[in-house]
Amino acid sequence: MAQPAQLGRIGVRLEAVPSPGWALLSLILLNLMWGGSLPATKVALDSFGPFTLAAARLLLASALFVIVLRQTALRRLPPRDVVRMAGLGVIGCAGVQALQALGTGQTSAATATVLASTSPLWIALLAPVFLREPMRPWPLIGVLLALLGVGAITGLDEPGALAGSLPGNIVVMLSSVAAALYTVLGKGLARRYSPLMFCGVSCLGGALASVPLAFWELSSSTLRPTILGWALLAYLAILVTFVGFIIWFWGLRALPAAQAGALMFLQPLSGLILAVLILGDRPTPGFLVGCGLVLAGVYLAAGGGRWRRASPVVLASLVLVVQR
């Protein structure tokens, strides 16, 4: 792992261990903030195209990561690992952010928030394929339960504005699959490097990969961002992606992985509340039942109580791509 001397001043300060009380409060507030990122993305899409928004968000966050990590730390990385981490960023950062923005523009913020929280389902399915990890009964039951919930949320009984379009919902789901691939394929590297280094290099790789898509989009459209659009871009890049990860990493130094991992389930809850308050989404009883099934399924697929055996590094790499 990168040594404190290789990091910038902020990186060195992250070596300090906070009190458990402050860490718990910080991570609760952080997950509530992260839950608002998809509703914020929905509004920001009025000012930016999906690819432009994803590229701008990743470029700004990457610049901040580089400042914290410092060039000396980055230069000491083996070139092969840099390429692998950056390549994973194409999937886990560029792919996730572009697919989320593209899909959210075609569905409701409430539906996107729930569908985007399903990454642990796909991790449960992909880990046996790529990592040869055994498929246990409870995660399989969780996958089936959550898929039943997805069917209830996007089903024919839901209002069209709430359920969204089928293509949009599929694209949001694909962003969760991309996040799962990033986590599963990056597990080995995530164990060898600090979360800050692993996710920072991945974010930089994703940013570079997203630039051509943004240029293509800008060549065929006119950019007219509003003040609110710029503010939401700054919120998504600086607070959600960069500062959010810094706080997560800081909090993990004081709290058990089980406690920190369980707090991730606050994200869809806060996202739904903000979608109702800000965007006027009106979840029906069937939608809420489906949401409950998805959350229960995600919990089971993620291993339930096995959060306590999860590596903080793996949790940190997962949370960077599922923060909405």
In sequence order, what are the helices and strands, one letter per element? HHHHHHHHHHHHHHHHHH
| Structural class designation | mainly alpha
Rg, please?
19 Å
Mean of pLDDT: 79
Shape: globular
Number of domains: 1
Estimate percent helicity. Answer: over 70%
End-to-end CA span: 27 Å
Assembly context of the chains: single chain
Record field, number of beta strands: 0
Number of helices: 18
Major sheet characteristics:
none
Percent in strands: under 5%
Low-confidence runs: 1-7
Commentary on this structure:
This protein is an all-alpha fold and 324 residues long. It has one domain (19-322). Helix content is 76%, strand content 0%. The chain is built from 18 helices and no strands. Helix 3 (37-44) packs parallel to helix 16. The radius of gyration is 19 Å and the shape is globular.
